[in-house]
Write a structure and sequence with these properties.
alpha/beta, Rossmann fold, Arc Repressor Mutant, subunit A, 15 helices, hydrolase activity
Length: 353
């Protein structure tokens, strides 16, 4: 596997082993229990119900969207709804066509194969997957050179569920072989509050509506982060109070864990602080900004920047990263006269027009 730089943040969508075990216990078991993603749920429900009525294997499913929104959970729900077993693997784990052939040849009829980060699969394996998805067979090459022989291997009908955080990296031939494609959107605060109340019941946490709203507002629109923060707030409430989670207790707990009112964590604020205080709001290059905060460029680009851009606190321009007026306001700072904030309206106004 690989070292995911997002593991370094409390509010990251990645999870360690213990967190994964807890999150697995909190996963919904069916579509009715799954909160949010109304459009994807409705469309997927039609696909599964139609397959049941035909007594057939459902079409292959592609789920795209940011991490932590429920792609793995939906794959497990697909298997549960169809009464089929599920096999879970990931694109980075499949580096050779033989790796994929070994997995496919051991599938049983109707089994669900969940392939996470499918865009990171090797090209030879990807090309083998084309035939497996369309014709339910693969050609296994035995030998090398002129004496090599391709042996056709028939596969039982199965359902591939691919998940990706970067759908644009999937080649069209692979993307077109999925019968259903669903894009997962960030959650609204009201949906996250429902997620938090459900998780609180399962974790036996006493939380009021205001406390759930406070956690939801700092969860970046991501259920996995909401559940993570709920567990940290629970710890704080049990150790320093009577265990009940209110708005004030939730806010105090998240302040201890350095998650502010907009969901920014230590790394996010360090990036903004460096951009504003050291570079006057930019523009500044990614590598320079990463050195300033003591992180790798990939960490800044993949962990901090997407959320900061989505919140309207940072912008990527051809000249480099620049802070927006909202960033200065959020940190309570006044932009200097030479700050690019004054020209941002001209920079982005044309695009909006």
């Amino acid at each position: 596997m690989y070292d995911d730089p997002s593991d370094r943040s409390l509010v990251t969508a990645a999870a360690d082993g213990e967190d994964r075990a807890v999150e697995a216990a909190l996963r919904p078991r069916d579509l009715d229990e799954f909160i949010g993603q109304e459009r994807v749920r409705e469309q997927l429900s039609l696909v599964l119900q139609a397959a049941k009525r035909r007594a057939a294997t459902p079409d292959h499913v592609l789920l795209s969207g940011p991490p932590g929104l429920g792609k793995t959970t939906l794959s497990m729900i697909i298997a549960a709804e169809m009464g089929a077993p599920i096999r879970i693997t990931s694109g980075p784990a499949i580096q050779h066509a033989g790796d994929l052939a070994a997995i496919l040849s051991s599938l049983t009829e109707g089994e669900v194969l969940f392939l996470d980060e499918i865009h990171r699969m090797s090209r030879p394996a990807e090309e083998m997957l084309y035939m497996a998805m369309e014709d339910f067979r693969v050609d296994v090459v035995v030998g090398k050179g002129p004496g090599a022989t391709a042996i056709p291997l028939e596969l039982p009908p199965f359902t591939l569920v691919g998940a990706t955080t970067r759908a644009g990296l999937l080649p069209p031939p692979l993307r077109d072989r999925f019968g259903f494609t669903g894009h997962m959107e960030f959650y609204a605060p009201s949906e996250l509050e429902r997620v938090i109340h459900r998780s609180a019941r399962l974790l036996d946490v006493d939380i009021d509506a205001a406390g759930a709203a406070e956690i939801a507002g700092r969860s970046r629109g991501t259920p996995r982060i909401a559940n993570r923060l709920l567990r940290r707030v629970r710890d704080y409430a049990q150790v320093r109070h009577d265990g009940e989670v209110t708005r004030d207790i939730a806010a105090a707990a998240l302040d201890v864990y350095e998650v502010d009112a907009r969901g920014l964590d230590r790394l996010d604020r360090a990036v903004l602080h460096a951009l504003l205080k050291l570079f006057g709001g930019g523009p500044v290059g990614l590598s320079t900004l990463a050195v300033a905060v003591g992180e790798e460029s990939e960490t800044v680009e993949e962990v901090a920047e997407p959320f900061l851009v989505r919140e309207g606190l940072l912008a990527r321009t051809p000249r480099g990263r620049i802070a927006t007026a909202a960033a200065w306001q959020h940190l309570g700072l006044t932009p200097p006269p030479q700050s690019p904030v004054a020209g941002q309206q001209d920079l982005f106004g044309a695009a909006e027009a």
